[in-house]
Amino acid sequence: MSGGFALFIVGWIVIMVGLMSIGGFFMFRKFLKRLPKEDGKSIIDWEEYYVDKTKHMWSAEQKDLLEELISPVPELFRDVARQKIAGRIGEIALQKKKKKITQEILIEGYIRATPKRDHKFLVKKLEEKKIDMSPYDPLIER
Q: Please, what is the end-to-end C-alpha distance for the chain in angstroms?
């Protein structure tokens, strides 16, 4: 075997192990979210519960705003992000005993459901829409 071919094989092995590790990490995370908690339901079960319970509370305007806010998420992960954020919004709406999803609940749910690094995009998007951010300042790290 030549040195170049051996180097190619070693490089290919490193790439394959790396890709399999990344895939395994995401599969393991999904597995952990599916494990039942103390109450017998998993994180994903609760998300689905809140989405189903509040499905009738969403107006077309609020659905459009949610789609606009999750637009920077890569297409591959957008469904997962939509489910997580909509579940959190539904949870907040039910806790506050609201009859419909309002813009305030949507923004609060989005902030609580997303990592801090994504809040910059939210602030920028809401400033473009001329929506007052002052009620959400305690929730956002700028």
A: 57
